[in-house]
Amino acid sequence: MKRLLASPWLYAAAVVALMIALPFIVGQSGYYLTVFVMASLYVISAISLNLLTGYGGQVSVGHAGFLVVGAYTAAVLSTKLGLPFVIALPASGVMTALISLVIGLPAVRLRGHFLAVATLGFGLSVPQIALNWGSVTGGYSGMAVSRPDLLSSDLVFYYVVILFTVVITWMLYNIARSRMGRAFLAVRDSESAAAATGINVSFYKTIMFVVSAFFTGIAGGLYAYWTGFVSPNDFGISTSLLLLAMIVVGGLASITGAIIGAVVLTFIPHFTESYVGVTDLIIGAAVVLVILFRPAGIVSLGELVRGRGGRSDE
């Protein structure tokens, strides 16, 4: 019985069951469905970023730029080219991955704060490109995005988002536990040592960017379809910093930690939106407190209770 209760799959099944039941608990409220969907999209983005930063040691301060690329790709393909959802959504991930490849190839030569500055530049430039490339993106006016008829219901689309969240989480979990994930950890711990053991450091650093960007682009595409509108101001540098805060608060190099951090920091604004400036203050305080007292993140509290100290999980 103890072994069953300790099974991560049991907890995962319980979480999925709760996600399925949530719309009925809140009376299918459009507001709460939006909050739940945004939490799910941030879960995808946070896990993707954690694969890059937590497992790979590559600090990205402009990850929201990938959300922008994914959202606009889905918007352009569906609105201007009339492509169906089943093509436009995967294409949003592919386009984001291709752009990340262009960034990743020169970025593999950078480390530490140099890489952070480079990704910051990317995160700042993408919204500006969307703002000024009016013939494609609509510029200041943004772009309207129409959902397919089968997904016109918020409740149906909510379950589609949940399905994508579960599948992508499972895929990233398996990547983290695979030989590729172990190579990421080796590169994070020491690039020189990894190269000495035969690991192609440049290749794996590029793969980190591509895989992370692909799934973040999917999240951006889902956002575009859910909101029905995309604008250059949807994901700014503050979103990139929020994603970083999510994985730090939840726990670096931990899939569970990224999920916890994404959910907690998505719901904080819901409870503090009526107080000006309080949301940023609470999030900032949470980051500082975690760094000072639980550097392994909130997820390490569970391991502390089980008597395993602060070791992060996969």
TrEMBL record:
Entry keywords, A to Z = Cell membrane, Membrane, Transmembrane, Transmembrane helix
**Coiled-coil stretches, from where to where?**
none
Q: Does the keyword tRNA-binding apply?
A: no
Where in the cell is the protein located?
Cell inner membrane
Q: Where are the transmembrane segments?
A: 9-26, 32-52, 59-77, 83-107, 114-136, 156-176, 207-226, 241-268, 275-293
Q: How does this protein lie in the membrane? A: Multi-pass membrane protein
Chief localization = membrane
Task: Quote the protein name from its UniProt record.
Answer: Branched-chain amino acid ABC transporter permease
| Source organism of this protein record | Salinisphaera aquimarina
